[in-house]
Amino acid sequence: MTKEEKYSLAKWAMNHALENGAQQASVSISNSQSSSVEVRDEKIDKLEQATQSGLYIRLFVDGKYSAHSTNRIKKEGLARFIEEAIEGTKYLTEDEFRTLPAPELYYKGGGKSLKTLDSEFSKIDPQEKINLAFAIEKEVLGKDERIISVSASYYDGLNERVMVTSNGFEGDTSSSYYGLNASVSVKSGDARPESYWGESAIFFDKLKKEEIGKIALKRATDKIGQEKLESDKMSMVVENRQVGRIFGPLISALNGSAIQQKNSFLIDKLGEKVISDKLTLIDDPFIVSGRGSRLFDGEGLATKERKIFDKGVLKTYFIDTYYGKKLKMDPTGGGTTNLVFKTGTKNIEGLVTSVKKGILVTGFNGGNSNGSTGDFSYGVEGFLIENGKLTQPVSEMNITGNMKDLWSNIGEIGNDVNKNSSWLTPSVLFEDVDFSGI
């Protein structure tokens, strides 16, 4: 189905809803393609390919709201589907806060191209995808006698969507992604240390296709001899790819739903300094070929670049239309795009060198954070740092504390940004972290 055909069908579905009892409606029609291959023991272990299309409709009927999706995207089946959805909506409880966004907040078109789609997506030879997975596995096989198992995989995907609303919005998005992964486990007495590495990209020709298996093997063998250390309060350096695990609760606390439901430790903190002045964070939806780049959000609201934290001062929440009405706040968009950190001057090696005693965290093993209080407990693994050097692999350690305290005790922010995510996290050094062990 072409983009024009999607728009035509979406408008028909929207009008059919309005003609059959809905006062407002929003319709999205999307399609996706994906493929993946996993290899193990020099054989293909799994091969998958999928193509999907679907329609998603949001209905506002007599002060009541519902949302529905279907893979039936021919008019004959859709007509009855929409009519039944409207009738079902009439039985729901009224919700005065459920409406479409104000039209003046919609994206009006004319934005720059964000280049999030690889136009060559459909031209990549399936055999090349398989060959890439085997090449990653080959980087590891036979390279160390302690290897127990190796698996490698390739994956990709393409997503396209058009969206229309009954109060004037029209917009479309398209994106692609590619990735390569390797997982390796090795023998160490009765233990089986294992590790993983992956690379991803929006464009196939930008995907890093080498060294992935080698890195996964090194990270696995570096874990040999892991020990639990005595409990202590120490510095903690968190690897850039792992920072998201402890940054996620901070972002979740800014969501409109958490604020309205009083499940956030950052309620009523706008304009206040809540964390270290070493953290400045910008949400930038306009990075060309950024993983989270977009001109409008899931409701059609125009995106804007905005500061989330400015030297530790909280500047905004993530508020969609529904929670904006409940909270009597202006909508800002319901989620993050590209999170950009103001970086420091040191890479992870430089951060480690600056630590007299601490732990470099390279992985998290379970744990959780309380959304209401910010209290957390996580299992961690990594390496003991002594006088700026990594001296001992460690595991079965826990960190405990409070998110506001943790992010108020930033020692330094690194400059080694992880570009494999829309959260462009650098490595971070924290001071005075409670580690529990022996």
Describe this structure in words.
α1 packs across α2 (75-89). β9 (306-310) and β10 (313-314) form a beta hairpin. A six-stranded antiparallel β-sheet has the order 3-2-1-4-5-6. A five-stranded mixed β-barrel has the order 7-12-13-14-17. Strands 10-9-8-11-16 form a five-stranded mixed β-sheet, with no helix packed on it. The chain has two domains: 3-221, PmbA/TldD superfamily (PmbA/TldD fold, 2-Layer Sandwich); 226-438, no CATH class. The model has no long low-confidence stretch (mean pLDDT 96). It has nine helices and 17 strands. It is of the alpha+beta class and 438 residues long. It is 20% helix and 37% strand.
What's this entry about, in short?
The chain is α+β, with helices and mostly antiparallel strands and 438 residues long.
